[in-house]
Amino acid sequence: MVLIQEDDDRKLHLVAYDGRKLHGAELNYPVHEKELLAIKEAIRTWDRYIDRDRFETTIITDNISL
């Protein structure tokens, strides 16, 4: 998971990154559910940094199956 921020010149800057191992039943999830789990974890982890009232939030995934 990566949190990036775009500046006024449209350049992207790394703010934070994180990740974790899959546990138990998560290992058997289909690929699209694993990707959604990562999105859920990212929102939970970085919610306090995301100001949805003032800025648009975009989620980008590299998984073609989605």
Structural commentary:
With 66 residues, the protein is an alpha+beta fold. It has one helix at residues 31-46, and strands at residues 2-6, 12-17. A two-stranded antiparallel sheet has the order 1-2. A hairpin with a 5-residue loop joins strand 1 and strand 2.
Break the fold down into its secondary structure elements and pairings.
Blueprint: E1 2-6, E2 12-17, H1 31-46
Antiparallel strand pairs: 1-2
Keywords: Endonuclease, Hydrolase, Nuclease, Nucleotidyltransferase, RNA-directed DNA polymerase, Transferase
Protein name: Reverse transcriptase RNase H-like domain-containing protein
GO molecular function: endonuclease activity; hydrolase activity; RNA-directed DNA polymerase activity
Rg on CA atoms, Å: 14 Å
Terminal Cα span: 16 Å
Which class best fits the helix and strand makeup?
A: alpha+beta
Major sheet: size, sense and barrel closure? 2 strands, antiparallel
Strand order of the largest sheet: 1-2
Number of domains: 1
What pattern of helices and strands is seen along the backbone?
Answer: EEH
State the shape: elongated
Query: What is the arithmetic mean of pLDDT?
Result: 88
Number of strands: 2
Low-confidence stretches: none
Instruction: Give the % helix.
Output: 10-25%
Keywords:
66 residues, 17% strand, two-stranded antiparallel sheet, 2 strands, alpha+beta, single chain, elongated, 24% helix
